[in-house]
Amino acid sequence: MKNITDRFSFILKPSTIVNGGVGVFALNDIAKGTYMELFLKDFQEEIREKKDTPIELQGYCLNLSDGKILCPKFFNRMDIGNYLNHSENPNVRYEKDKGYFSVRDITTGEEILANYRDLDEPVNTRAEYYMGNNSK
Predict the structure, then answer these.
(1) Do the beta carbons of residue 14 and residue 136 sit within 8 Å?
(2) Which residues pair with 12 in a beta bridge?
(3) Of 16, 58, 61, 102, which one has the fewest beta carbons inside 10 Å?
(4) pLDDT at 133
(5) E strands along 62-128, which residues?
(6) Whose CA is closest to 102, among 40, 12, 37?
(7) Distance between CA 27 and CA 7 in Å, rounded?
(8) What gap in Å lies between CA 49 and CA 112, rounded to an integer?
(9) CA 17 to CA 114: how far, in whole Å?
(10) How confident is the model at residue 126 (pLDDT cuts 50, 70, 90)?
(11) For residues 13 and 89, what is the distance between their CA atoms, to the nearest angstrom?
(12) Coil, helix or strand for 128?
């Protein structure tokens, strides 16, 4: 079990989640409590108007309480963490201003899954994510 992750720890493959599209998978065993290097330190986001963002890209954005969305600044250079899929039984958790951490041991080949509720999205905009309409 490794207790660190780096640029050689993850790979994108077809998701195990129904309508999940692409998912993030572990390339090695990862110990519980490990910081998950899913986003580079220089990852940039920007707040955008929903109407100005192609519908196909909105699933990679986070709904904000004012009706705008928080998106990767460069959709053509997204970090691997942008491909995390939602699960009610995630194996990673998000800690605000700290990043993602494994909540249990993760085995090689396992899909990395997060609970989108950890992202503080407004309650009234969550349904589209949890109803399977967010196929990343």
Answers:
(1) no
(2) 24
(3) 16
(4) 43
(5) 62-63, 69-72, 85-86, 92-95, 99-102, 111-114
(6) 37
(7) 10
(8) 29
(9) 12
(10) low
(11) 20
(12) helix
Torsion of CA 51, 54, 58, 59, to 10 degrees: 150
pLDDT tens track for 18-42:
988 999 999 999 999 999 999 999 9
d(CA 133, CA 115): 15
Instruction: Name 135's Cβ contacts closer than 8 Å, sequence gap at least 6.
Output: 19, 20, 21, 59
CB atoms closer than 10 angstroms to residue 9:
21
- The Cα–Cα gap between 20 and 112 comes to 12
Phi then psi for residue 93, to 5 deg, are -130, 150
Mean pLDDT score across all residues of the chain: 90
pTM of the model: 0.85
